[in-house]
Here is the input.
Amino acid sequence: MDFEKIARDKHLNKTNCASSVYEAFQEINTNSTAAPLPRDEGGRCGAVLSAEKILREMEIGRTEEFAGKFIERYGSVMCEDLKGKNGISCNDYVGFAAVLLEKMIDESKEEGTLV
Here is the structure.
């Protein structure tokens, strides 16, 4: 399944960043509840919030690792710091969050920590 494409397409079709990432993974996240609101936690990027929520709901954890990799790539997880900076669109953040989240889910499957 191409989670990045699904998330990006949702975002391009006017779904907010948090819901775009969250909804892209609903089929495999059997513990899904509802997407967080963008900037809901102290102004953090909605794509990051959703990915971290999915990692918790799927009992993978590794939320700090996810945030660290996002920061390594973009310099921040704060919406205010990211939005419209360096010519990078929110859709790019959504896409990267989906790619990174999928990689972490796959790694957990390989490690046997996720069935």
